[in-house]
Amino acid sequence: MDWPNHTAARREWREAAAGARMHHGWILAGKAGLGKHDFALQAARELVSEEAVPQPIGEHPDIHMLTYGPKDDKAARAAAEGKDYERARSIRIGQIRAMQQRLNTRPSVGSRRVIIINPADDMERPASNALLKSLEEPPQGTFFLLVTHRASGLLPTIRSRCRILRFPDMDDETIARHLGAGSNAAIALAGGSLGAARKFMEMKLEPIAKVMQQLAAQGDPTLALRAQLISEIGARPSRERIQSILDLARTTLAQSIADAPADKRLGIIDAHAALVDLAAKAPTYNFDIGLLVGEIASLLANAGGASEPIHG
């Protein structure tokens, strides 16, 4: 796909690549669903390509992807057998250590290799600390592309050692051209993210969005809307669905601020910040789904009914 929101990032990237010395660490920052993964793969291909060095057409041995690995030994055995397996909720230190061992050898094809970590903001703290050592003293010809949906989730020391490429939101008209008819509700909920709009359509999140909008607008003194939200989400939502629901809750609050009375805006801002924190923790903690959904509902309802900051 040709992502129209990549123009500025692509220009900055290629200007840097044409310079005398390419920076070794890059953070690709922006909301989920803006094509940062696609950009990383294309950028990695450009980096490892060298004149007069034939490049493989398929998977490249000098482009290494780190993402969620198997959850445990049972999942690892299933993965080794080519079966479906349950993934971990974070990128772990063992994955970083294995990558660092690989860096002790020369690249397979040319003189460069690229490590893509996606999403880098879901690294465990020990994994982040281990990666920092490679960023401080990168092997010659090694480049790191850290795909992140929440750059604030990275260690400040990691951010300070990388250049940041920012990926802007997409306008509604552009998203509509990609999604086609029947996408108006998804576009309104997506907050400028084509990927989020697609997920909202695929996961049929419009009924959930309507309950969230009611919670944010009027609160929930009888707890009926909380119960309705739990029912709409279901008893065993996938991790991907929960993450999309958290994104939807944040978008709902962000969109409600403009029309909110002045005495409610601080409560909405406080609830939005709490949802951002909850979304950052959700991939790495084993939440009881009922409690997690209840917390989402409470934050929305408190924002809708509060005239003071929630934690004040």
From TrEMBL:
Any Gene Ontology biological process: DNA-templated DNA replication
Name the source's superkingdom: Bacteria
- Name under which the protein is recorded: DNA polymerase III subunit delta
Q: What organism is the protein native to?
A: Altererythrobacter rubellus
